[in-house]
Amino acid sequence: MIEAFPLAWPIGRPRSKRRDASRLRASFASARDSIVSEVRLLGGSSLIISTNIELRRDGLPYAATREPEDGGVAVYFLYKKRQMCFACDRWHKVAENMQAIAKTVEALRGVARWGTGDMMEAAFTGFAALPAPSQTAARSWRDVLDVPADMPAAAQFERARLHYRAMASAKHPDKPNGSHAAMAELNSAWMQAQEALA
After folding, report:
1. Contact present, 11 and 173 (Cβ < 8 Å)
2. CA–CA separation, 29 and 94 (whole Å)
3. How would DSSP label each residue in 11-79?
4. Are 99 and 33 in contact (CB under 8 A)?
5. Using only C-alpha atoms, what is the Rg of the chain?
6. Distance from CA of residue 185 to its chain's centroid?
7. Three-state secondary structure call for residue 83
8. CB count, 10 Å around CB of 137?
9. 4-51 confidence digits (pLDDT tens)
10. Do 73 and 105 contact (CB within 8 A), yes or no?
11. Which of 150, 149, 131 is nearest to 189 (CA)?
């Protein structure tokens, strides 16, 4: 799983150099709920909305909170067993960036409805979030997350989740000993663990 808080910006995706005023008018709660709805309607699963806003118990960001300095949003989910990522930090506010992502997913649903299958696959190519296979081939997800195979599946999942959370903060590229490669390996391992243990 990608870290929902703090913001887990996709590796290799450049940040916006400046922020603009937006005409995307939506409350925080409605923008968040639009993302959840649009990803579900698209057929996505394992949704994570990553921001610099603390989380509710259900893992979604709180609506009633102070606006963070970094209004970036990264939305990760599985689509046809591939990890996708939509990220936006073009606008000043988190709600505006979430609404932009919701509108993008809505537009891609339109491509799926009105276009041809190959158009949809081509549209999604730029949103793939997994690192190249050569980056993750060295170690299995069990090795990366220290999960033995002889545990019950529920215990394996919980151990993987806890180890992911513990390591994500240390391996993040913004941390002194973190790196893009280490974070990519960790994120890939968590996504593989979710698929294997779901």
Report:
1. yes
2. 11
3. TTPPPPSS-B-------HHHHHHHHHHHHHHHT-EEEEEE-SS-B-TTSSBPSSSPPPS---EEEEEEE
4. no
5. 17
6. 15
7. strand
8. 8
9. 889 999 888 888 888 888 888 889 999 999 999 999 999 999 999 999
10. no
11. 131
* CA nearest to 26, candidates 83, 101, 77: 101
What DSSP character marks residue 143?
Answer: H
Treating both helix axes as pointing N-terminal to C-terminal, what angle do 28-42 and 94-114 enclose, rounded to 10 degrees? 20
> Across the chain, what does the average pLDDT equal?
83
Amino acid at 171: K
Phi and psi at residue 157, to the nearest 5°: -60, -45
Cα separation, 53 vs 148, in Å, equals 33
Residue 169 in tokens: 């903060």
Residue 179: DSSP 8-state: -
For residue 94, the surrounding DSSP H or E stretch is helix 94-114
